[in-house]
Amino acid sequence: MNSKDRISLVHGFGGKETYELLDRIIFSKLPLNLKRVEGGVGLEVLDDGAVIKFGDKNVVITLDSYTIKPVIFPGGSIGTLAVSGTVNDLVVMGAQPIAFADSVVVEEGFDVGLLNKVVDDMLKLLMELRIPLIGGDFKVMPKGSLDGMVITSVGIGVARNPIIDINITPGDRIIVTDPIASHGAVILAAQLGMLDKLEGIRSDVKPLIGILPVIDKYSDYIHAARDPTRGGLAAILNEWARQTNVTIVIEREKIPIEDNVRDFLEAMGIDPLTMASEGVAVIAVADTYADDIAKDLRSRGFRASVVGYVEKPRNEFLRGKVVAITEIGGRVVVEARGYNLPRIC
Amino acid sequence: MNSKDRISLVHGFGGKETYELLDRIIFSKLPLNLKRVEGGVGLEVLDDGAVIKFGDKNVVITLDSYTIKPVIFPGGSIGTLAVSGTVNDLVVMGAQPIAFADSVVVEEGFDVGLLNKVVDDMLKLLMELRIPLIGGDFKVMPKGSLDGMVITSVGIGVARNPIIDINITPGDRIIVTDPIASHGAVILAAQLGMLDKLEGIRSDVKPLIGILPVIDKYSDYIHAARDPTRGGLAAILNEWARQTNVTIVIEREKIPIEDNVRDFLEAMGIDPLTMASEGVAVIAVADTYADDIAKDLRSRGFRASVVGYVEKPRNEFLRGKVVAITEIGGRVVVEARGYNLPRIC
């Protein structure tokens, strides 16, 4: 390791650079039996959570740190985000959340009223969802050592049939549950002082608890599920395509997105496929049930859409790649890499 | 809530002020059924971890953030600390650690070699203890927004008979497993550039896995166990005394402490009882087995000592108080409050 190597922002964007760094300093050093609890799922699969079997129960555990700036934004706060993000990681594993814990780190001088507001957002969601807050930690760093706050949440859930993202096969179709990229667009606009350009748009941050009955009902036909946060849809689909050696084809015009969000991002030269959502799931399902699942989701208030499909690579170049069919019918490779924002989640 | 209230360092010291803040903004707002999973233990008891029952298994979960500065110190690093602190929280709950996850937040520009060293310290301990690393998160904050790094660890364990610290009764005796305060003294000296005053002393940071067989063997007679980190022995003993309305009496001359640590802290005017240890447990045990337990611990290489006992308050003033018998036989009340160091853990 070159001693002059420095961490750059790109290491934190959740894409290829993050993977390569963590693989070099962590994953490659651990044998398989120290990456998971026997009989469960852990670091050997880079999914949203890990699974430990206790008797006949599949217990799912997820851990995430939130560093978003600003702490309060249109549609929520770091508190809303911490609960939603953690619940969503459980939901896309097919798990019912049963407990939550959080560790809060703030700087000396942090406004207690603001802390209280953030905590209230967190508690309000937990109470609505009836998820107990069973523990946590609280630390204060001296003035000048932390800009804002860091919240780290752990979620515990139980899955009848955990969704491990390794079963994608040609023929599967891809469903997106709601309009994408609103969260990313709002945070970008807030950081740039351009919120006036996004009138009426709020972050999509929300707990995806409402999709659980659908996941449960169709669990045998759901081959993968994720929430496209850092790196957006482009990152998740590329990860799926690469891991399973398929081509994933996306029809751009079918991807749900708010007009204002599309216009704002277009004006900024940013592909919405690379922008984070915090209340949206992307699901790969068996062809036969794709329309039923989308319909079921829509009947529950989601603006779900079948946006693409999985195919056998037509040639070597397309193996592990994501291809978008553009509005005028062209086929274009979609890279995982795009515009990245620090402190988006 | 006064909007001009600001977080101060004292809110982060784990004592009365931390409790009062968290009680005001969190604990008091949650009904009991949202503080724990039914049948388990959660926020209603402020212990080192929470308990969830899965079938006949008592699963213990603990979550802590580490912000220590410096990141590397004599005896370990923030990586050693994150694993040790988390393992110790499980051990003092009577739980065998079975899985670990960690979330790392660093600043842009952080030295990759240093990150690698910290991660290696973490992995080395996990491998020694054969605890799988099952998941985590990695975030990068822009330059200037975080001094150093924050690691948040979650530990999962299984306890045959979880030790919940509510059974302390008059007659119990107090055991300390090893010399106290070395961690606090080393970090204080490092922060002040005075490490030359502590020749030969290293932080006591270590996983307390070696005490588990003793805890297991005597579990029916162990009424409480904690690791005295932030706030030291004084904080834990005061918490126990207050919660159970007893008086805890400590004989100062029986408390194990390295000579150099005692001399250094004395010169600084700091009571070692208020200094953090990161590889020491304090245990309240039934009188009958106290000497056997201490002996068993010593046979396993610990420098354990019976340092005090629990008594019925002799008067109203002494209810919920900790009293030290000094080297010259006097009785003095020991407050939870003492010298506090930011970023000690």
UniProtKB/TrEMBL annotation, chains A, B:
Matching Gene3D superfamilies: PurM-like C-terminal domain (3.90.650.10), PurM-like, N-terminal domain (3.30.1330.10)
Domain PurM-like N-terminal: 47-158
UniProt feature coiled coil, ranges: none
InterPro entries (UniProt xref): HypE, PurM-like_C_dom, PurM-like_C_sf, PurM-like_N, PurM-like_N_sf
Domain PurM-like C-terminal: 170-318
Recorded superkingdom: Archaea
Any one biological process term the GO annotation gives: protein maturation
Family: Belongs to the HypE family.
Protein name as it appears in the record: Hydrogenase expression/formation protein HypE
Organism whose genome encodes this protein: Ignisphaera aggregans
Gene of this entry: hypE
